Please model this.
Amino acid sequence: MILNLDPLFQPFGNDNNIQFESFTFSGGEPHIKIQSDLSRVKEVTITTRIQSFNDMGLLLIAVDALRRLELRSIHLFLPYMPAARQDRVMVSGESLSVKVYADLINNLHLDSVTVFDPHSEVTPALLNNCKVIANHEFIKHVMTNIGSEVLLISPDGGALKKIYKVSEYLGGNPVVECSKKRNVKNGQLEGFKVYEDDLKGKTCLIVDDICDGGGTFMGLAKELKQKNAGHLYLAVSHGIFNKGVDELNQHFTKIYTTDSFKTLDEESVEQIEIKELT
Model:
């Protein structure tokens, strides 16, 4: 059976769903009560989208509630791994946040944890019994939608390895390498570079795992246009878009993402449901 902790996120449909009620106490603590009869159930899959530490708390107590109902086989479908970008300590005094979240999940002793397009290899290395869904089918869907010869754009060195794997999966689309610098002191992005002299008006698709504020992609879009790029598209597996998409729309013909982090209602963004990619 399926326990969908986020009512707006049902990646396996709405059959065999476990009924529950949840709320937050006035002191800020999440609470859950499983209402379905699970006496004959042997296996449960929990699905959730974690956007806050309170969402993480709900996951923790949900597993505890299931354990107290003597459920022994529990799987977790968590497409967006929280804190996946905090996978290294850049300066003294910072936390290794992804490990904090991974430790909490590992302490639940789950049978499997499935994540979609993790930020780096650190996440699956830290999570016990981790299963990874690559972004290959997502990008294939996007490429089919664009419907023309497309250059795959790697925004930085960190994305390059994954993009070459995507290219191989798609049959060998050309890849254009780019780079950027981040000022460690103030966190600002600078020094965008595109390692091609002339893109000859070709359609370009920037591929990355996360779009938060969008600064990387807007800075890169300007540099791509300087190198004679044609239509620009953006495909990000996890669309956070904390500043909205209005500024991004000034640079991109269309933006593609999934519902791994939240459900969007933006005409300029095509949101592909995770269930179509699994």
The longest helix spans residues 53-68. The mean pLDDT is 94. The longest strand covers residues 203-211.
